[in-house]
Amino acid sequence: GFGIAVSGGVDSPHFANGDPSIAISDVLRAGPAEGKLQVNDRINSVNNISLENVDHSRAIQVLRDSGNSVHLV
Question: Per the database record, which ranges form the PDZ domain (predicted)?
Fold first, then answer.
């Protein structure tokens, strides 16, 4: 994996205001994302696939399907 956990989605908004953005909820120590991503960073796209207004499960699937390399915006 990439050493991150994500939360959010249109079916599972986690922000008090109902924002459905996909966001980093955890960064594993000594993982590949440590020092690059932070908790609460929003993910707009993965390898040019939009994560705006998607279900949580769709966001997870896009991340899993990205292979060994990922370009996050």
Answer: 1-73
8 CB-contact burial (10 Å; exposed 0-12 / middle 13-18 / buried 19+): buried
Q: What is the mean pLDDT of the chain?
A: 93
Which residues form the domain of 55? 4-66
The encoded tokens of residue 65 equal 């399907």
- pTM over cut 0.85: yes
Domain count, the chain: 1
What are the two backbone dihedrals, phi and then psi, of residue 7, each rounded to the nearest 5 degrees? -140, 170
Residue 13 CB contacts under 8 Å (≥ 6 apart), including other chains: 19, 20
